[in-house]
Amino acid sequence: MSGASLFIKENLNISDVQVEVLNGTLNIYSLIGFTLAGKTSDWLGRWYTIVLAGTIFFIGALLMGFAPNYAFLMFGRFIAGLHCRDLSSLVSWLPHIFPRGLFHYHIILSYNILTIFVFVNVGILLGYVSNFALAKLPIHLNWRIMLGIGAIPSVFLALGVLAMPESPRWLVMQGRLRDAKRVLNRTSSSEEESQLRLDEIKEAVGIPKDSKDEVVQVSKRSQGEGIWKELLIRPTPAVRHILIVALGTHFFQQLSGTDSVVLYSPRIFEKAGITSYNDKLLTTMAVGFVKTIAILVATFQVDRFGRRILLLSSVGRMVVSFILGVGLAVVDQSHSKVPWAVRLCITIVLFIVVFFSIGLGPITWVYRSEIFPLQLRAQGYSMGVAVNRVTSGVMSMTFISLYKAITIGVAFFLYMGITTLSWVFFYTLYPETQGRFLEDMEVLFGKYHKWREANAMLNKTKQVVHGFGDDNKAQIH
């Protein structure tokens, strides 16, 4: 859509506001899918959910490709938007099927980031390449092909998932212990490890470990009913901390403005002084290239340095990189082309994308996939992704109007302030989850609150002791 929107605007003769709405509403439309997120995952399982996602996006891409006018294009965009929540199931699914052991988390993280970020970013890069390659076609045809060819990878998505097993955790939550055992046998290094993992999942779901039944009746609570109350109305301190961290990460990831940079990079480069379609799309293609390389780097570093270090260093460097506002302000105020400012803007845009892709981009999704307890996982996922998509939609639908109202330079200074605030948030609230298993998260987040309670009790005890005589003090100490 980054390059296609340039030609859609000219061909359909639509306003900048309509372009913003077209770009941003994909995220808003996906909220319909998010509303049913927990039920969809619990009812169909991750396997069928992803097949359904591929089918929906196939239809949406074709509708967009054949759109005769703006209204029909928006309808196709609506259909395509319904699939976005279902693709997020892939993140929640992969950690469930890999074995424990020495390389357990290396495998989980590699597949999470490679599948969700490396290949997604390869797709973004190919989108930019197709923008550049198809730009020379007649304007009534080029953007339709740019959008319509999205139907092709959705077919591979639906077919490729057929080779993958269902989540053993989901199978246990449905009471299908025999099927779960079969999947665990395929994804474990030994029979003993398979049985150990099955016992852990059964305990988390509420099934007795010594149960030998192959099919059992699981309580309604483990199937997702009543979970919203535990998550929102009466959460434990640990669950509340997990929820704040998960939602805050998604919120600040999108509020950093990087989505605007990726989606509107041709316009940013135009503001920097690049005028021809060819040069704008070529420079945008460079954004996709460095973004993909940076994700590859993150894949090999995230388990070496840990999530917290990569996240804080990524966001800290992004704060510095938003001096992009300086270059854009200089170009905006100048009546002639300023070569050094143009070069500065291009360089800084590439740096922003690199720093985001090394930390804040992938860590948001990896972190979210690790921290929610099993019984809260589906609902927690849906809330996190809903916050992510709403924030992204708002940012996408306001970027052009924002920079027209306060100038593009000031807009990026605003993003810099928000990113600084996000660094403080991450530094204050984020524990390190490197090397932890899925079942350990509630304990990890609970330690912080237990420490606070213990510290408060110690202070209270000191106050009481202070009121005694010296002999009693010595005895009490």
UniProtKB/TrEMBL annotation:
Family: Belongs to the major facilitator superfamily. Sugar transporter (TC 2.A.1.1) family.
Name by which UniProt lists this protein: Polyol transporter 1
Principal location listed in the UniProt entry: membrane
Origin species: Pyrus ussuriensis x Pyrus communis
Short name of any one Pfam family annotated for the protein: Sugar_tr
UniProt cross-references to InterPro entries, sorted A to Z: MFS_dom (IPR020846), MFS_sugar_transport-like (IPR005828), MFS_trans_sf (IPR036259), STP/PLT_plant (IPR045262), Sugar/inositol_transpt (IPR003663)
Residues annotated as domain Major facilitator superfamily (MFS) profile: 1-434
One GO cellular component, as annotated: membrane
Compartment(s) where it occurs, according to its Swiss-Prot or TrEMBL record: Membrane
Transmembrane segments: 47-67, 103-129, 141-164, 309-328, 340-367, 405-430
Record has Membrane as a keyword: yes
Bilayer topology term: Multi-pass membrane protein
Keyword vocabulary terms for this entry: Membrane, Sugar transport, Symport, Transmembrane, Transmembrane helix, Transport
